[in-house]
Amino acid sequence: VLLEAAMLQPLPTEQLFSAPAAQYLLPTLGETPSGEHPHPKKCSPREYLEFYIFPVVLPGLAALLHEAEKEKCFEGKRTKFIPSDFLTEWLYNNNPKRKDESFTELFSIPFVKDWLKDHPRPPIPLSLVLSEEEASILIQSFWRGYRVRCDSEIQELRQWQKKLREERHITEVVKKFWTKQEAK
Q1: CA atoms lying within 13 Å on the CB side of residue 129
Q2: The whole model's pTM is what?
């Protein structure tokens, strides 16, 4: 009952946001705060974020947003773009320790290879991989094939082939052929 009563009370927003707004500002992209870098193991969580995390991650997030816009992620519900993959690849390739090394694709990154060995991904659905034009060509070709197979002459030809396969025991002949080939 006390919890319900507390939930129905309005929130005192002046207490929640009493700190000056400047306190919540994040550093500019790619820029570390001025001053001496604190020791990473002895500094506060806020200092660690400001000096070690934000200068690295924020430019990656900006690049991620630009790439998502290029991939038209904001226009539809589904997309083939996987943000975590992009960010992983971007962070790996923009690591200062790899400054002189060439660009490495996501699936060539060593720790990604190791992870995918134990955790294989399901394939991306064709609806996300194909363009509208490619999808329409596939649908049209399937429909033309269906219409051709419905033709009475084609039906007759298919029946004749089926009968021929059964009379000559084609499946057994093929099996024998492959056992001979494998024995060689």
Answers
A1: 5
A2: 0.56
